[in-house]
Specification:
With 98 residues, this protein is mostly helical. It has three helices and no strands.
Length: 98
Amino acid sequence: MTMPTSPTTPSPDTSPHAPWYLRPLCVWVCIALVGPLAIPQLLFSPCFSRRSKWILTTLLLLLTALIIYALHLLTTLLGNGTLDEIFQILQNPNLGLG
């Protein structure tokens, strides 16, 4: 037996009365621009179902962790010696270009 929804309850799929900053397009733009900092905006948006909020939040956190790990791995592989050599070359006024 399903409970009837009241007319004031917004549908998770579309909510024409949601503020502009909680509409799906704005949420996606914020996710693309600021990543995990947009999670509160996603969670407060009435345009997404509870399940989609959980899935998107989990995927966003996993993607963020993957990017952090990749950056850590990159800096570990480069090593301090290689970075020091690059900085010395960049600070040298005679780069051998002429």
